[in-house]
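May I ask you to review the protein record following this short note?
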Amino acid sequence: MMPSPSNPGPDASPMVVAGLGCRRNCPQQDLLALLIHSLSQHELTVDNLVGLASIAHKRDEPGLHELAMHLNLELTFFTPEALTLHQPEKAGSPFIRSITGSTAVAEPCALALATRLGTTAQLLGEKTRTANATCALATFDREPTA
């Protein structure tokens, strides 16, 4: 059977989204370096990415928009309320909650976008971080077309 977009076959590259959190004015280069590092830990590249996500609190963050433009990917923002179902089981950060309204950013954003794009959303390991940013990756399966 030939692979097709609706039935990519067992060897299809995984579809991955990245959830990103960052400090104010985090440079695009820092976000890109963290993203590439995160992907490489799972033997993936930016070619596997199908979307980026962050919290609505970061809607005006230039580095996130520059990263999305550089990678030619859609950047989706989620409200804290939309992330409620995707919060990690571990206790999040009260500090992050006081700033963004959400106890975590990277992981729930990745899961929320993966859930929006397909089925069987799951995180790829732990989030990675630098002094300026966090990155979580999630995979998902495309819903079969009728």
In short: DSSP finds four helices and six strands in the chain. Strands lie at 15-22, 49-55, 75-78, 119-123, 128-129, 133-141. The domain at 15-141 is CATH 3.30.420.180 (Nucleotidyltransferase; domain 5). The chain has one domain: 15-141.
